Amino acid sequence: QHDKLALPVGTTLDRFIMRKQEDFPYATGELSQLLRDIALAAKIVNREINRSGLIDIAGAYGNRNVQGEDQQKLDVIANIRFIRALRNGGEVCTIISEEDEEVIQTGNVQGKYIVAIDPLDGSSNIDVNVSIGTIFSIYRRVSPTGTEGTMADCLQTGTNQVAAGYVIYGSSTMMVYTTGNGVNGFTYEPSLGEFFLSHPQIVTPQSGAVYSVNEGSSNSFSSGMAAFVTYCKEANYSARYIGSLVADFHRNLLKGGIYIYPPTSKSPNGKLRLMYECNPLAFIVEQAGGKSSNGRTRTMELRPEDMHARCPLFIGSKELVEKAEEFLAQEE
Ligand code: AHM
Ligand code: MG
């Protein structure tokens, strides 16, 4: 509410970030700059995504891009764009990416920040014009500056996040992020090339009537998980599952609901990654008044064993996540 009054209609993301920086008297502006770097890379990736369906048509006119990149490779392109933006920005010493097996050292040894990123999640949806997203998470390094970031810098628990956000490339493109002071959403105006504040201080409904889970795996659900799905059906909830995490999460954040990626026989620890997917969305959902856990333990308190570790995800409206946890607790 405070933000709605304080910020005029037509507030751009850049201006918003600058205003927010004034709220932290000792801030040096590096985090603000880092968020702007991410937003810039997001605009570039957005442009590539919008054009991706035209690549073959453009090729027919002799306009094929030099690399001959096909659409599926957009996740690789997105990875390159974000890493380049973060490296050039200078605030980040080390990046971990879902797309890269190894840690990426930017060479900016004075950089205070660590970024974990899933550059393009849901990439199997690119070919079929379904919404996809970028998810990011920002930590302050724990090691002293002047050297490369360490594994301990990269494997912090989610509670240490200083900022997290996502970009959804959908019917419109949005960036939603938190720095621990609530959640704000910005919608991209392509002809102006700017993100504008469109969703100030997002508060997620405490409950909801939507459950989002891949029921194709229900044969391998645990008894508690199966009982929760039955409960949702008996309550006449709607099933909504795009299969694109950012899109499913974004809808439930605004409208209420629960997203679940439970353990299955194919993915005994769930499919989603703690550092790139679960923690950033958990920070956002908590800042919006919702909840996130692995079914038993708060997501942001899970200890990452390695940077690509997976964990089950139960995320969304508080009452629904608690209800699911109750069913799991009753399992023998
Ligand atoms: P990806 O990182 O390979 O793109 O996979 C992540 C995606 C999520 O966006 C989505 O929620 C989930 O995988 C869907 O998985 P499934 O098809 O097993 O339901
Ligand atoms: Mg992913």
From TrEMBL:
NCBIfam families: PRK09293.1-1. It catalyses: beta-D-fructose 1,6-bisphosphate + H2O = beta-D-fructose 6-phosphate + phosphate. It is found in: Cytoplasm. One of its GO terms (cellular component) is cytosol. Binds 2 magnesium ions per subunit. PANTHER family: FRUCTOSE-1,6-BISPHOSPHATASE-RELATED, SEDOHEPTULOSE-1,7-BISPHOSPHATASE, CHLOROPLASTIC. This is Fructose-1,6-bisphosphatase class 1. Its cofactor is Mg(2+). It comes from the Bacteria. Residues 12-200 form the Fructose-1-6-bisphosphatase class I N-terminal domain. InterPro entries: FBPase_C_dom, FBPase_class-1, FBPase_N, FBPtase. Mg(2+) 1 binds at E98, D118, L120. Keywords: Carbohydrate metabolism, Cytoplasm, Hydrolase, Magnesium, Metal-binding. Belongs to the FBPase class 1 family. Substrate binds at D121, G122, S123, S124, N214, Y241, K271. It comes from Hymenobacter telluris. One of its GO terms (molecular function) is magnesium ion binding. It is an enzyme of class 3 (hydrolase). Pathway: Carbohydrate biosynthesis. Homotetramer. The lineage of its organism: Bacteria, Pseudomonadati, Bacteroidota, Cytophagia, Cytophagales. Its main location: cytoplasm.
